[in-house]
Amino acid sequence: MSAARYPALYQVNTRVWLTELSRALGRRATLDDVPDAELERLAALGFDWVWLLSVWQTGSAAQAVSRANPQWRREFSETLPDLDDEDIAGSGFAIQDYTVHHALGGAAALQRLRRRLQQHGLKLMLDFVPNHMAPDHPWVEAHPDYFVHGDEGDLERSPKNYRRVQTEAGPLVLAYGRDPYFDGWPDTLQLNYGNPQLQQAMIGELERIAGQCDGLRCDMAMLVLPEVFERTWGLRADAFWPKAVESVRRRHPDFLFMAEVYWDLESTMLQQGFDYAYDKRLYDRLREGHARPVREHFHAGLDYQNRLARFLENHDEPRAAATFSPEVHEAAAVVTFLAPGLRFFHQGQFQGRKMRISPHLVRAPQEPIDRRLEQFYDRLLAALRLPAVRQGDWQLLECTPAWEGNWTWDCFLVFAWQGDADERLLVTVNYAPNQSQCYVRLPFKDLGNAQWRLADMIGEAAYERDGNDLQLGGLYLDEPAWSTHVFTLEESK
Questions:
Q1: At a CB cut-off of 8 Å and minimum separation 6, what does 157 contact?
Q2: What contacts 119, CB < 8 A, 6 or more positions away?
Q3: CA 41, CA 235: separation in Å to the nearest integer?
Q4: Contacts of 107 (CB under 8 A, 6+ apart)
Q5: d(Cα 42, Cα 12) in Å, to the nearest integer?
Q6: pLDDT in tens, 241-300
């Protein structure tokens, strides 16, 4: 099967997944214990990629910080009222070494799992954290110049951004990893991208990782942009990403890079060589609940939109089921995942999980399954498996007032999808808390002199419409609050 123009990615919290498998098996599970039936299920749902979160080796130094930090422990206890220290393994983003964690089965188990994924037509995505390392990373001893240094004055003035580290050569004051808007992450140390040797060392890590997977999600990728790094640390740095991406692709031409990125730097990261960038702006506009800013977001060119990763939740964001009411959740999901780009889903999203699981934890609470939401996602994923939606052409359609003075036309988002063999879909969403009406002019030129059946893939609605009326006046919509449809459009026989 050819690669999808608009692929789907499924994010798995690896450590939580294996904890659940361990409970079922009655022993510690590794990556070798991931059932083939589960991989087959993910492939059958239409996924192209599986992102295994937190597979790299973490250490005792970061784990100790995670267990002792009172603010973090409060958060962990809210997630797990019966919290135990064993539930806190340390953040998967405080990496001690880019080798597969021994508790997961090591590199050999990952290699075997990757082969099994490939047998099901699935590609493997892993994490890369460019900005920082764990406090007990070997480079602290071997290459202390790879990190951002401070002095006793920095430590006194800004204790939330620096720490004293004991090394064999003596004590050092090193900076915590951070972004320019918040205090540092106290379980990490900041890498110095002003040091060319550090950049080469990180490219070496990337080249080694690229032999173990098919793509990488790069954590907070914009933090090492020269302008961002200098604003944060006052240090000049050469551009890292273009030469890093080029170096990896010399050996692995089809390797995929996805950037976690904020602050409207999506286009910048794509220009740096990334295949996809997080579309946080769409997510934020959907949370605000107004149709017009969402619709305006889709006015960007397809050369840009096709390279955005669209999501409603991930390990950093609150759960969608806890963020949106049920009807808004469904409307937001239809908008998000029936737009062009990479469709990015999170483990537990389909079941309506409401508790966000910190990447410091290895256990999730037991939660009931939302059967209505699960059924909705079953239907939505069926629509996303259609060739027209995976490979076809997408278009944002214009809505016009149903009558003079009726402002509710502005509440709609309407998309069309067209594929080969006359396959076509019409996606309509009234993204508003009120009944709304509009006319939509359809882009299909061959509707006249025939009757057409519109059948909703995610609901029960079905309509017969005259093609001449559709061609001349457009489709009339009169929809309740947050109403969604994914219509197939077929000529009536």
A1: none
A2: 39
A3: 48
A4: 99, 100, 212
A5: 11
A6: 999 999 999 999 999 999 999 999 999 999 999 999 999 999 999 999 999 999 999 999
